[in-house]
Specification:
- Its main location: endoplasmic reticulum.
- This is Nucleotide exchange factor SIL1.
- It is found in: Endoplasmic reticulum lumen.
- It is built from 22 helices and four strands.
- It has 448 residues and is mainly alpha-helical.
- It has a four-stranded antiparallel β-sheet, with no helix packed on it.
- Helix 10 packs parallel to helix 13, helix 13 packs parallel to helix 16 and helix 16 packs across helix 19.
- The longest helix is centred in the N-terminal third of the chain and has 30 residues.
- It is elongated.
Length: 448
């Protein structure tokens, strides 16, 4: 019985071995299975080897590897897949194996490779060549120290420019210095610093004695810029005798650019400074202005003079009307002491203004800006004009009134192309004309 049982176990064991052997052969056959490509995409099993020269991709929708024969005429592509280079695990292993093999170089090959490596060694000659090409750190430090990269203050720049001015006679350098200083003194503190460094005497007055027209012109511009809206510098200019110097430049110099800059500088000193205005009158400033208007040679100069005097008259008017200003009584006393309008009347100022007005009207009736300046000047002094001058002015203003009415109507008709700015400007000029005409009509009626 036991013998029969043992024989049965032996037969079962033999059967199991036969089955395992068959399975191993089948698996081995599967491992050696080669993928057979066609013209269509086919799924490649993990156990299959992919021959070279195929088109291989991973289908992003299924995650499976697919392959097919290369087709040069194939043009259709789909965004659902991404192509990858053909390879499989066996090729990767073979590639790594080949790389490891290539790393095993012979002794002769290593020696040959070492010969081709560039040496870091340099000869003394090569080192000297490089040293000459580049400066040392100490040399660079010294050079940067000389440059002084620390930013300079405006006060330092003004001082430096004035020092340079003392040591040069070159016209172009002097003009550059004057231009730089003029730019700096536009700022309030810089103008005060220029005064503290005696800039009027050392720079401005010195250059006004130059025979070079450009230097004189730029020096006058520097003076005018320094005194603009700066009471401290205005007072200093007055104390330094600038008004007399400027009146002399205006009266004696024949260059109109010098005259123009002299008026600019005078304007900066006189505005909102009644004591300077009184000094201007005492130095025959109004007589010099009247002479320039009588010459009738340069309309630009004449209009500047007329505009400046009109601004000074308006200053006096505003001070009288506004009693809430600081030091009102003292300001009023000083302006009354100047008494500009009465001084103008003695110089027949209305006559001169009328001549300028008639010239502007005859030269260019479309010069609205110049006409406006003349109309404003007439309004400021028309109560000082005699009957003859008043009549001449009124006749011209009546012509202007008709013209501006026409311009307003023309502008108003073109609704599609109407320019509100121009329309309002013409209306403003028409109002000035009416104001003058109404005053003279009232004056004649009152006198009769």
């Amino acid at each position: 019985m036991q013998l029969n049982f043992c024989l049965l176990l032996l037969l079962i064991g033999l059967c199991l071995c036969a089955t395992d052997s068959k399975n191993n052969k089948e698996e081995s056959a599967d491992d050696d299975e080669l993928f057979v490509p066609t013209r269509e995409w086919q799924v490649v099993k993990k156990s299959q080897k992919i021959p070279k020269g195929l088109h291989v991709r991973v289908n992003l929708e299924t995650g499976l590897t697919e392959a097919k024969l290369l087709d040069e005429n194939e043009t259709e592509k789909t965004s659902a897949v991404a192509e990858i280079p053909q390879t499989n695990d066996d090729e990767v292993r073979n590639s790594n194996s080949d790389s490891a093999g290539r790393l095993k170089l012979s002794e002769a090959e290593l020696k040959e490779a070492l010969k081709n490596i560039k040496s870091d060694y340099m000869s003394d000659k090569e080192k000297d060549k490089i040293t000459k090409k580049f400066r040392s750190y100490e040399e660079l430090k010294k050079e940067l120290g000389d440059i002084n990269l620390t930013p300079k203050t405006d006060a330092e720049l003004i001082r430096e420019l004035m020092d340079k001015h003392k040591t040069t006679n070159d016209v172009s350098r002097i003009l550059t210095i004057l231009t730089d200083l003029e730019f700096l003194v536009h700022q309030y503190d810089n103008a005060n610093e220029f005064v503290n460094l005696n800039g009027f005497k050392e720079i401005i007055f010195k250059n006004l004695n130059s025979s070079n027209v450009n230097i004189k012109r730029e020096s006058l511009k520097l003076l005018g810029s320094a005194v603009q809206n700066n009471a401290k510098v205005q007072i200093h200019a007055l104390e330094m005798g600038s008004i007399g110097v400027l009146i002399k430049q205006l009266a004696l110099d024949t260059d109109y650019s010098i005259k123009n800059r002299a008026i600019f500088a005078l304007s900066g000193i006189l505005r909102h400074f009644p004591i300077a205005q009184l000094k201007f009158i005492e130095n025959a400033g109004l007589s010099v202005f009247a002479d320039e208007l009588a010459k009738q040679k340069n309309m630009k100069i004449q209009l500047k003079i007329v505009t400046l005097i009109n601004d000074l008259l308006l200053e006096h008017k505003y001070v009288m009307e506004d009693n809430t200003t600081t030091n009102y009584k003292e300001k009023l006393r000083q302006y009354n002491q100047v008494n500009m309008k009465e001084k103008l009347k003695k110089h027949n100022w209305c006559d001169y203004v009328n001549n300028v007005f008639q010239n502007v009207f005859e030269i260019d009736i479309n010069d609205h800006d110049s006409i406006e300046k003349c109309l404003n000047a007439i309004i400021s002094i028309m109560d000082t004009c005699n009957v003859i001058i008043s009549t001449n002015i009124k006749d011209t203003v009546i012509k202007l009134q008709s013209r501006y009415k026409h311009l307003i109507l023309t502008e108003d008709k073109n609704e599609d192309e109407k320019d509100e700015t121009i329309f309002n400007y013409y209306t403003h000029l028409l109002i000035l004309c009416r104001q003058i005409i109404e005053y003279f009509n009232y004056k004649y009626k009152f006198e009769l």
